[in-house]
Amino acid sequence: MKKKMSLLIVLSFVIILILGCGGTSYQKSIYNDDDKIVKQGDSYTFGVRNGNTINNTANIKFSSFTGMDTLFIIDAKTNINIKVEYDSKVSSGDFKIVIINPNDKIIKVIEGTQKGSVDVEILKGKNRIKIVGKGAKGAINLKINDSEEVSINK
After folding, report:
1. Which tens digits make up the pLDDT trace of 3-33?
2. Nearest of 125, 121, 93, 126 to residue 107 by alpha carbon
3. Structural domain of residue 27, as residue ranges?
4. Number of structural domains, the chain?
5. What is the CATH number of the domain that holds 98?
6. What b/e string do you get for 17-26 counting C-beta neighbours within 10 Å, with b at 16 or more?
7. For residue 6, what are the β-bridge partners?
8. Can you give the pTM of this predicted structure?
9. What percent of the chain has pLDDT over 90?
């Protein structure tokens, strides 16, 4: 009887783990919904997330990423152009990086696998850089060239 109960508990745990790794239906609906992306909070699931975000640089490897995660908050003293350097390698799923300005306007920086840089206008106030995914697996290296006119926080 104890073996059956132990087996039932282990099986239940495995089923919950498998079902939980894909993200909730809300998280799956975020990718194509700008109204959800601009929200202040984050909602995400990672199967695996390795790496870090330090100062103005993010280096992250991920799998089964679904939802949205804020990497940086850029507080600008004035309107300013900043350079964002990126190297994104996505092997499956959907993945993008967006900037949300203080007026909740979304600027798509990249989508999918891309390498390069882009100059982006940052408005005075708090701007957010988010990664957004739907079943995404890959890696992202991101660097924001800062200036004295902005402070970059997590």
Report:
1. 666 655 655 554 544 444 568 899 999 999 9
2. 121
3. 2-153
4. 1
5. 2.60.120
6. eeeeeebeee
7. none
8. 0.84
9. 77
